[in-house]
């Protein structure tokens, strides 16, 4: 890559061989691509990443017809080059070894031990690339009694404690465990994997030493419970579900307005006082049951129904305007159409449009990473299956047209 290009991106000097599919691994690879890395996504000939068919919805072409690219796939694969290789064949395995030898990072999320039988595990590939950074992502890690289990985000949300904290209180209608609306264990594993890869690359650049990274969805799910973990470890009592309320602060929850819902996060007594004054019930600020946060927590079952009735008397936008003017933390609960029409989201340019070979244009969500000297880049839309097989094998490995045609004839690429 030209020096001028390297200076414009943080990872323009890095090549990543991406053997992952679905979400956690592709999310990590997409982060690295956004930061400028050359990412080569390897898929099975004919079918590719499972998420390509996880629809509807699918991307539509200029005539409004469905393409073969599911929205799920589009979420995690921008900026990559896509090649197809059958790694179950000796010839396909040789292609992967040759690509690994010319790469800085290998990402994979196969079952434990599956790539070893192909000679594509870390111990095998570091023989051809001693300073390789090799990151494996699985449900439960490379060791332990669950190592050979398949890992699914939904199951891990339950096993890792998240669903014991998420959902309405058990004693209220609709109470019980609830998963997140997105695959948080997968996404956070992708984020932690990105950090681990960056750390390993920094170590390699300082010492010349590569290393193996063992990432597990369950480890990440346990780790990310943060203060709830510590609430348990400090007290010995497992935290309970509180729905849209907070165990330690009142009022810090959702409320139904006359025409929608809002969030009110009164973090101190002064904010609470302003809240009830705006609502026309200033006497609630002086009531000894509610005058301090500890008292409000103690008497939440009395106070919250009163506040809920108060909030229902005004519209969502009226509450937001009045509370913001008074400095009381608040916000709406937006649907996604409202999110992408929000002035702040628009100002931050969180939606991007990229050229697409079959749809003409594809709408995507921008990276949230804002770097001043090395901004993220969006070189290309999520690729079609095998879109770059010929160009990558020619440019990176020097394969000529005769070699490519021979591999295609044998369905290896």
TrEMBL record:
Coiled-coil residue windows: none
Family matches, as InterPro entries: CoA-transferase_III_domain, CoA-Trfase_fam_III, CoA-Trfase_III_dom3_sf, CoA-Trfase_III_dom_1_sf
Highest taxon of the lineage: Bacteria
Keyword annotations from UniProtKB, A to Z: Transferase
Pfam hit, one: CoA_transf_3
GO terms assigned for molecular function: CoA-transferase activity
Protein's recorded name: Formyl-CoA transferase
Protein's organism: Undibacterium pigrum
